[in-house]
Amino acid sequence: MSEHLVCIECFRPVNSIFKIYSDGFKDLIECSRCHKVVDLYVECEPSVIIIDLILFKEKAYRHILFNHKFKAIVLLKFLVAFLLCDAYLYWFNKKNRQYESIRSNDHLLFYELEWNFYYMLLRAFINFLIYSCLIVFLSVFSKMRWKNVAYQVIKSLIMSSFGKLFVLPLVIWNPNDVYFNLASLFTLISNGQALSVGTQITWTKSKWIVTFSAAIVYMFDSGLEL
Q1: What's phi and psi for 175, nearest 5 deg?
Q2: What job does this protein perform (predicted)?
Q3: Partner of 146 at 20 to 30 A CA spacing, among 19, 67, 96, 140?
Q4: Contact between residue 116 and residue 92 where contact means Cβ atoms under 8 Å apart
């Protein structure tokens, strides 16, 4: 199996997570270093993994970043979904600020809002590009090597941005700034945890890298609204 598989307990590289017998039975392998099962999440329901990711458990992040192999097309789909969530959030805020007093049945307003959403989608993509490039650069600088770091950083950021999906309830409930800020904070913490796990940078370094990159993107994005 892949050389990138690891024990989620001690992070030791392993050759396999389980053995498959002739009758199709799978037997989880024990790590030779810590003598614990290499990856218990293999037999867990997706809901259990999601809960542990929400709780920022390091083992869960190791599982999805190293032992759960995602095809490039799957990562791309996740990225598109998260960008759409960001675009919707930008669009929603702009709509509330500028069009509160305009009649909802105004056809010109409808088309203007539609084009605004396309602009917000482009804006979300540019912000993600700047954010990810900054984190890649700072991570490479921190580890003083390029090999595998760039890909692992991008993968870590995409897979840990599931907090952006929290904007979906906006379709049903009336949101407020506190809700937006909490969702953004959750995503940043998740990004930091995934960056630390995915690149083996210390949590302190990953925290400052993510915070600094997010601050730069915020200042850039604020400039676009002027």
Answers
A1: -85, 170
A2: Mediator of sterol homeostasis involved in sterol uptake, trafficking and distribution into membranes.
A3: 67
A4: no
